[in-house]
Amino acid sequence: MSETKNNTKKADQWEPRILAFLCNWCSYAGADLAGVARIQYPPNVRVIRVPCSGRVNPMFILRALQQGLDGVLVSGCHPGDCHYITGNYFARRRFVLLKQMLDYCGIEDGRVQFSWVSASEGQKFADVITEVTESVRALGPATRMVKELWTLPDDLLMEFESQEG
Amino acid sequence: MGNDVKNLNELAAELLRDGKVDVIVGYSKVQRELASRPIVIENADEADQLIFDRTCENNLVKYLHRLKGKKVGIVVKGCDERSVVGLIQELQVKREDLVLIGASCKGVVDRRLIWLALDRKPFENPRLDGDKLFVTLTSGFEQEIPVNDVIYTCCRNCFSHNPRFADYLINEPVEQPAVASISPKVAENEAKSCDERWDKFSQEMDKCIMCFACRNVCPACYCETCFTEATKPRWMSKTDDPADAMFFHFTRLQHLAGRCTGCGACERACPVEVDLRLYNDKLRKDVNEMFDFIAGDDPEAKQPLSCYCLEDNNDIFK
C-alpha cells in the first residue's frame, strides 16, 4: 500500500525508486568495485542479483513497472564476456524486442534501460546509475501501467474503525 | 502427390479409406448463413460434410495439438500453412504425420463488415457468387456487394493466398497481389508522440476483458501451463485493472516474437475487438527488420529468439 502512496507524494519529496537486475559475474562485481573504491552514486537503486542477464525474464521487468517502480535497469556482461558464453546474446535479442514494444505502446523511453558493465568498470557503474537516476527523475513518478491497489472507500473505513471501537 | 486440383470430398474419402490419414480436420456447413465450423472426421462416409468457401475463417492448425500421434489430414489456407511451418520448426508436429490439403483463398468474409456495409439494415439469403455477394434486404431488393469490401482486415494484408507446401490442392491457385504484409496503421502509430501512443494503447487495453480467447485460438500458443494460469509463481493477477491486461498483452507479444505469422485468428476471436493487429504487426515488423526473419516462411530456418548473431542491434545498451 505504501508503494502506491509514494507516487502521490509531492514532487519535491519524491525520490525515484529504481530496480536493477545485475548479473552476478560482471555488473554486480562492478557495483562492488564502485563501493570498494568509494565512488559516490545516487542511493535510489535497489539491486537484485541474477546469475546472468539472460536470467531476466521480460515478465520481471513488466511486473516491476506494474508494481509502481519508477525505473528498471538491467545490466550484464559486455557481449563476448558472458560467464555462460552466450547468455547475454540471447538476452540482447529479447530486450531489444521488449524495449521496442514498450516504446511503441507509449511507456516512456527512460523507464526501462539496459547496460553492459564489466567487473572492472566501477566508475562506469556509478556513471550508469547516475544517468539512469537522473533520467527517471526527469520523467517524474511512474504512472503508466502502474497497478492501482484497491483501498477501502473512506466512509467504509471510518465505519469499520468506529465498530472496532 | 501431384499438383492437379482434386475434389475435397472425394479426396478426403479416399485418404480415409486408404488409411493414409486417421482423421481429417476441415470445415463444414452450419445452419447459420455465411458461416462454417471446424469439423474432425474419422470415417470416409462423413467426408461429404466437408466444404471450403469464403466463410472458412478458422485457423484449424490449433487442432493439431490435440491430435498428436495420429496421421492427420488438414485443410489449410495459405495463412494457416504458415502456422504449420512454425509448428514443424518447433518440433511440435512431424511433417510426415501430416497430409496438407491446400486451399487457395482470397480472403474470408467478415460478417460484421457486411452489416456495416448495409448501414446496419437487416438482410437475408446471402449468396456468394464468385467475387460478389448478394443479399436480399427486407424490402425485397437484392443488393450486390463486392466480396473484397467485406473481407477481414487481416486478409487485406495477406501475402500468402496460396499454400506452398501442400500435398494436394482443392482449388486453382489465385493471383497474389503485391501487398505490404504489415498493416499501414503500424507506421501511423509509430509516427505519433509517446503520449498519443500511450493513449491508444490504454484505450485498447481498457477494452480487454481477459477472456484469453486470443491465446486459445492461437496455433503458436500451446504451453501446457500458460503463464496466465501458472500459480508457482503466479505471474499475473486477473483483475479489471488495465495494467493486468497490459501485462498479459506485453508478455503474449514477447512469447510470439518470431512466431506470429499474422494469420489474424486472435483478432477474429476477440469478443471486444481489441486492435491486436496493431501490436502483432509491429512485432512482426521488428523481427523482420532486426533479425531478417519472417515466421512461417521456411521450415528449416532457426527461430530468431533461439539463436543470436554477434552483430545484433546493440543501440539500447549503455
Short description:
The complex is a heterodimer of chains A (165) and B (318). Chain A is α/β, with parallel strands linked by helices. Chain A has helices at 2-8, 27-36, 58-66, 87-105, 122-139, 154-164, and strands spanning 18-23, 45-50, 71-76, 112-116.
Q: Which residues of chain B sit in consecutive blocks of at least 5 with pLDDT less than 50?
A: none
| Biggest beta sheet attributes of chain A | 4 strands, parallel
Question: Could you state the order of secondary-structure elements of chain A as H and E?
Answer: HEHEHEHEHH
Q: Give the strand tally of chain A.
A: 4
Structural class of chain A: alpha/beta
Query: Radius of gyration of chain B in whole Å, from Cα?
Result: 21 Å
Element layout with pairings:
The complex is a heterodimer of chains A (165) and B (318).
Chain A: H1 2-8, E1 18-23, H2 27-36, E2 45-50, H3 58-66, E3 71-76, H4 87-105, E4 112-116, H5 122-139, H6 154-164
Parallel strand pairs in A: 1-2, 1-3, 3-4
Helix pairs in contact in A: 2-5
Chain B: H1 8-17, E1 23-29, E2 36-41, E3 50-51, E4 72-76, H2 78-89, E5 98-102, H3 111-117, E6 123-129, E7 132-137, E8 142-146, H4 153-156, E9 168-169, H5 184-191, H6 194-207, H7 213-217, H8 242-256, H9 265-269, H10 276-291
Parallel strand pairs in B: 1-4, 4-5, 5-9
Antiparallel strand pairs in B: 1-2, 1-3, 6-7, 7-8
Helix pairs in contact in B: 6-8
Structural overview:
With 165 residues, chain A is an alpha/beta fold. Chain A contains six helices and four strands; from the N terminus they run H-E-H-E-H-E-H-E-H-H. Chain A has a four-stranded parallel beta sheet with strand order 2-1-3-4, sandwiched between helices. In chain A, helix 2 crosses helix 5 (122-139). Residues 1-7 of chain A have low confidence and may be disordered. With 318 residues, chain B is of the alpha/beta class. In chain B, the strands form two sheets. In chain B, strands 1, 2, 3, 4, 5 and 9 form a six-stranded mixed beta sheet that branches. A three-stranded antiparallel beta sheet of chain B has the order 6-7-8, with helices on one face. In chain B, helix 6 crosses helix 8. The radius of gyration of chain B is 21 Å and the shape is globular. Chain B starts with 7 loop residues before the first helix and ends in a 27-residue tail after the last helix. The chains are: A alpha/beta (165), B alpha/beta (318). At the A-B interface, helix 3, helix 4 and strand 4 of A face helix 6, helix 8 and helix 10 of B.
